[in-house]
């Protein structure tokens, strides 16, 4: 099965960032290979891959700017800190639902590549809409 593409128009996928620098490009390829063999729907794999690319682009930029402590893709403590910082950075850029979807993709990325879980809690579900009761 063909691996999903890492290009995107997704606002949280690092669009316009160009190619990922090493070693992030290799991690994205490894993740794409892991996703290709997963049971996720093709559309879900494509979204997860785009969102993982955005996460890696953010890590690359933050690391290049000296804003990350440790190596977030080798040290578990640094990985959790980076994932949480990325999730906070998304808070003002997208809806809570989108941020939760990105959280799921980042969690999947960490899990499939053996980096361990991020521990980012899922946002609480919104309350259901009230259904009007019809009186007869």
Shape: globular
What distance lies between the first and last C-alpha atoms, to the nearest angstrom? Answer: 55 Å
Helix content: 40-55%
Structural class given helices, strands, pairing? Answer: mainly alpha
Order of helices and strands: HHHH
Mind describing the biggest β-sheet? none
Count every helix, treating DSSP H or I runs of 4 or more residues as helices: 4
Q: Care to count the β-strands?
A: 0
Rg over alpha carbons: 17 Å
Which residue ranges are poorly predicted, with pLDDT under 50 across at least 5 consecutive positions?
A: 1-17
| Percent range for β-strand residues | under 5%
**Mean pLDDT, all residues:** 81
List the defining traits of the structure above.
mainly alpha, disordered N terminus
Brief characterization of the structure:
The protein is mainly alpha-helical and 136 residues long.
Write structural notes for this entry:
- The protein has 136 residues and is mostly helical.
- It has 4 helices and no strands.
- It has helices at residues 24-36, 42-64, 76-90, 96-112.
- Helix 2 crosses helix 4 (96-112).
- The radius of gyration is 17 Å and the shape is globular.
């Amino acid at each position: 099965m063909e691996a999903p593409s890492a290009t995107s128009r997704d606002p949280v996928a690092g669009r316009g960032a160009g190619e990922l620098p090493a070693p992030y490009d290799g991690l994205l390829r490894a993740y794409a290979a892991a996703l290709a063999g997963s049971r996720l729907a093709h559309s879900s794999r494509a979204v997860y891959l785009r969102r993982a690319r955005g996460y890696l682009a953010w890590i690359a930029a933050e690391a290049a700017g000296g804003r990350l402590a440790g190596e977030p893709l080798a040290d578990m403590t640094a990985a959790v800190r980076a994932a949480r910082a990325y999730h906070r950075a998304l808070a003002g850029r997208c809806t809570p639902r989108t941020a939760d979807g990105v959280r799921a993709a980042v969690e999947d990325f960490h899990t499939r590549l053996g980096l361990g879980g991020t521990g980012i809690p899922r946002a609480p579900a919104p309350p259901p809409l009230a259904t009007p009761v019809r009186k007869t």
